[in-house]
Amino acid sequence: MQIAINLPNEFVALQPVNEIEQDMRLSYALWLFKNAKVTLSKAAELATMDVYAFIGECKKNEVPVINITKNELLEEIASMNQL
User: Fold this and answer.
1) Nearest 5 degrees, angle CA 31-CA 35-CA 41?
2) Which residue among 27, 28, 30, 81 has the highest number of C-beta atoms inside a 10 angstrom radius?
3) Is residue 6 helix, strand or coil?
4) Handedness of CA 16, 31, 59, 49 (dihedral sign)
């Protein structure tokens, strides 16, 4: 599926069209992942990146990759130490 939007020429002239497309794909992928609409791997696919590069973009954009509280993590670690 292709989605087209109209951008004023003054904004399109700021960078090459392929870079605008990549930035828009990344922005949308970050939004979808942040809002739990897609998995990490699907978001990376949409952004045309490997998972590790997408995780790096998540970090740059302050999008949490792991959705767990500090207490939940500590409980998980404690339970693993009991094994």
Assistant:
1) 70
2) 30
3) coil
4) negative
pTM of model > 0.85: no
**Tokens 């949409």, located at residue:** 46
Q: What is the pLDDT along the chain (83 residues), one digit of tens a residue?
A: 888 889 899 988 889 999 999 999 999 999 999 999 999 999 999 999 999 999 999 999 999 998 888 898 888 888 888 86
Residue 44 token pair = 């990376």
DSSP string, 30-70: HHHHHTTSS-HHHHHHHTTS-HHHHHHHHHHTT--SS---H
Give 6's Cβ-side CA count (13 Å radius): 1
